[in-house]
Design brief:
Length: 118
């Protein structure tokens, strides 16, 4: 059973930063989704086992950076210049293929709340 353990969410003022972490029990293509109240879950960023990256929205590119430590099977999401509209539950995801990571990940974390106050 694959386990994804997230940490790093919390409350921050607009313009602030947070770093999310997600430790997996194996090596996968990994990424982050988010779901704001009343909205559908959306893809935020993904990083392949090879190190290639992709970002799901122009709204996060340039402010968010995804990275990974393969030795620890851990993926990070550094979020800078946070805005109130970034408020959401952020979910770590893992998949066995790149395509599945951005569409239908095989595994999900429990989610961590990120709240950005204005």
């Amino acid at each position: 059973q694959v386990q994804l353990v997230e940490s790093g969410g919390g409350l921050v003022q607009a313009g602030g930063s947070l770093r999310l972490s997600c430790a997996a029990s194996g090596r996968y293509d990994m990424g982050w989704f988010r779901q704001a109240p009343g909205k559908e879950r959306e893809f935020v960023a993904g990083i392949w086992r090879s190190g290639g990256r992709t970002y799901g929205s122009e709204f996060v590119e340039g402010r968010f950076t995804i990275s990974r430590d393969n030795a620890k099977n851990t993926v990070y999401l550094q979020m800078n210049s946070l805005k109130p509209e970034d408020t959401a539950v952020y979910y770590c995801a893992a998949a066995t293929t790149i395509v599945r990571l951005t569409t239908e990940p095989d595994y999900w974390g429990q989610g961590t709340q990120v709240t950005v106050s204005s």
